[in-house]
Each structure stands twice: as structure tokens, then as C-alpha cells.
Specification:
With 232 residues, this protein is α/β, with parallel strands linked by helices. 34% of the residues lie in helices and 15% in strands. The chain binds zinc ion.
């Protein structure tokens, strides 16, 4: 497939496909330390090693650590949309490369990489699971075992857009499972769960619980973009 060499952010010409122009690059907000060691929420000043966000203390997530490459805003949103609906699979190496850098510590500890799956019906319509494609590229480069079918989406959930936190939790409750035949792919292993975007965390929390029910020793989460909120 041939891709146009245009920036996914502003549609201007770039020298090669699958890249972002310098202006848009400057508008991306890459997440660097200091951040919450659990939720990866960036802090505006350094509070010392191991400092946690109020959110991570008030509501400890079921997963161990979350890392994200960029803040979910403007260009990051356009990149995710271009990948999800716009068939810009040429963006996968770029986005996966940023994720690999953000999740280096998680990758070093991971036994297996598992993407958040789409429901079969939605996958059939869209033909493409962006989380699976991102995690496939990350697995290939890092050499960590890739198990794209370990997790199954058994509930055709409605889109989370426009739902409040409680509704989102209800919407994805019991949405995932690890089938009996695939249990050995995660049992006793530290899983790196990969998704494109983290907003309220309801989806990855539900997926984490399913992995743990199947015997995963622990779960870390790596996403392309996360919402900013909650840091000091
Ligand atoms: Zn641009």
C-alpha cells in the first residue's frame, strides 16, 4: 500500500511517509519524568523519586504501572484518529517507537505483550485493531513475546465517548476474558497490556482484571496517549 507523504497533523507535504512535520512535532507533548510512578501522570515539578499522584493513592489501579508516550491533545488526537479510521498504518512505526521509549522499563520486565482487543464485530467492520498493530511493532523491535489473541472481548460495548466514569466502568465490566485454551499464554507471566489511549482507565482496568483472573503474575499498561489531569 502506498501512503501519501503528508503530515497527519496539518496535511502539508513531508519528506517521507509516516512522519510528522517540524511544526506539529513541536506541538506534541512527550511525557518525561517527573511523573507519578504508578499512573504516569506528569508532574510540573519534581517531588522526589517514588512520589505518587493523589489519584493513584485514592484509587489504586488494578495494574502495577502505566506509561504513555504523549499527552492526549490536539495532534496526538489526530494521530490516533488517523490510525484508527484513516488507514494511516504508515504511522505505526513512528508511534510505536515513541511508546517503546516511554515504556522501556516496563518492556524490560515484561514476559509477554497483549493488546486490548476489539470485539469481533467491530474488528470485522474496521478490519484493523490499532492497539494490536502498535503492540506488534513494539514486540518486533523489543523481542518480547507477542500474544495478540490472549485476551478476548466478549461484550460488544458501546463507545465510551460521552460516558461518565461510572457509566464507563459499567459499560466495560466483564467485557474481557482469557479463554481456557489461551490461559497458558499469560499464566504466571508479567503482561504488558497495550492500548492506544488512556482516559478514565475503565477499559484497561477491566482487561487487567481478566488477565489476573487467568493467572497473570502482574500487569503493566503502555498506551500511546493519556489525558493530562491529576498532576500537581
Ligand atoms: Zn504538520
Amino acid at each position: 500500500m502506498l501512503f501519501p507523504a503528508v503530515c497527519p497533523g496539518c496535511q502539508t507535504a513531508v519528506t517521507r511517509a509516516g512522519s510528522v512535520c517540524p511544526d506539529c512535532w513541536a506541538n506534541l507533548r512527550f511525557i518525561e519524568r517527573p511523573y507519578c510512578e504508578v499512573l504516569g501522570i506528569p508532574f510540573s515539578y519534581d517531588l522526589g523519586k517514588g512520589f505518587l499522584s493523589a489519584q493513584a493513592i485514592a484509587e489504586p489501579p488494578p495494574f502495577a504501572r502505566l506509561r504513555a508516550a504523549v499527552i492526549y491533545q490536539e495532534l496526538a488526537t489526530r494521530l490516533v484518529t488517523a490510525l484508527k479510521y484513516g488507514d494511516r498504518t504508515d504511522l505505526v512505526p513512528l508511534m510505536a517507537g515513541w511508546m517503546e521509549r516511554a515504556g522501556a522499563e516496563l518492556l524490560a520486565d515484561a514476559d509477554v505483550i497483549v493488546p486490548v482487543p476489539l470485539h469481533a464485530r467491530r474488528l470485522w467492520r474496521r478490519k484493523f485493531n490499532q492497539s494490536a498493530e502498535l503492540s506488534r511493532a513494539i514486540a518486533r523491535k523489543s523481542g518480547v513475546m507477542f500474544r495478540p489473541l490472549a485476551l478476548e472481548r466478549i461484550k460488544a460495548t458501546q463507545t465510551q465517548v460521552g460516558l461518565g466514569q461510572r457509566q464507563r466502568q459499567d459499560n466495560v465490566r466483564g467485557a474481557f476474558r482469557v479463554s481456557e485454551q489461551r490461559r497458558s499464554e499469560v499464566e504466571g507471566r508479567r503482561v504488558l497490556l497495550v492500548d492506544d489511549v488512556y482516559t478514565t482507565g475503565a477499559t484497561v482496568a477491566s482487561a487487567t482484571r481478566a488477565l489476573k483472573r487467568a493467572g497473570a503474575s502482574d500487569v503493566d499498561v503502555l498506551v500511546f496517549a493519556r489525558v493530562a489531569g491529576g498532576g500537581p
